[in-house]
Write a structure and sequence with these properties.
The protein is mainly alpha-helical and 222 residues long. The chain has 10 helices and no strands. It folds into 2 domains: 5-63 and 199-219, no CATH class; 64-148 and 178-194, no CATH class.
Length: 222
């Protein structure tokens, strides 16, 4: 049974907030940031901001490399959406963002070789699906750029007579899941905007604290 959509939205908001805090704290602390320090730092925030109690299970330390990968993927979506949302992307060089997306995408090739099933590689596959889903808008650009999947094509099972054993067309569960995934990516801009709005007070408070009370870091250094 699927959880109510509002619960899923709350989880995504918490994950976004956790990524935001990790990124801001790392910008200040640099390579000296450790998981132990971050946990102490978050404990301090929890005591100051009761709003964070609903996000307790998602306020965790994120490795520097993971943050970098997430930011790269978000950057790809941002660049692609500039093309998608533009009324005439060929008029001002907006189409150049597609090539920039491809460069970022291909930088992950070594991490996703051998049909890697990591969250990162699955996120890249989701981006590919989103790109294909929006291809009718991307095709307005002159360059025909494609994003190769890093996953191996799965073989279609065959019957004894050698004919392909296709799934029952009445079984639309898998198709519905894919459509739901694409619909979620389609509204990416709205989701990010809504996420920012729903956590605006908390984020603003945290940002203010990070700027006005840098002594917090020295108080909780390991």
């Amino acid at each position: 049974m699927k959880e109510p959509s509002y619960k899923n939205k709350e989880i995504e908001d918490c994950r976004y907030l956790n990524l935001y805090i990790n990124d801001k704290v790392r910008n200040i602390m640099g390579d000296t940031l450790t998981e132990e320090f971050y946990n102490k730092f978050i404990a301090t925030f929890k005591s100051r901001y009761p709003e964070l109690k609903n996000c307790s299970n998602y306020m965790t330390y994120i490795d520097k490399e993971v943050i970098g990968d997430v930011n790269k993927i978000l950057d790809m979506y941002e660049k692609l959406n500039k093309v998608i949302n533009h009324s005439n992307p060929t008029s001002d060089g907006t189409c150049n963002n597609i090539g920039k997306c491809l460069n970022i995408y291909m930088s992950f090739q070594s991490k996703c070789k051998n049909d890697n099933e990591s969250q990162l590689c699955n996120a890249l596959e989701t981006f590919c699906n989103y790109y294909l889903f929006k291809s009718y808008l991307v095709k307005r650009c002159e360059d025909d750029i494609s994003f190769p999947s890093f996953k191996k094509a799965k073989e279609v099972p065959q019957d004894q007579d050698g004919s392909p054993n296709l799934p029952d067309p009445q079984d639309e569960t898998e198709q519905d899941d894919l459509a739901g995934s694409l619909q979620m990516e389609e509204s990416l801009d709205q989701d990010v905007s809504s996420s920012n709005s729903s956590n605006s007070k908390t984020i603003t408070a945290i940002s203010t604290t990070l700027l006005l009370f840098p002594s917090l870091f020295s108080l909780y250094k390991v």
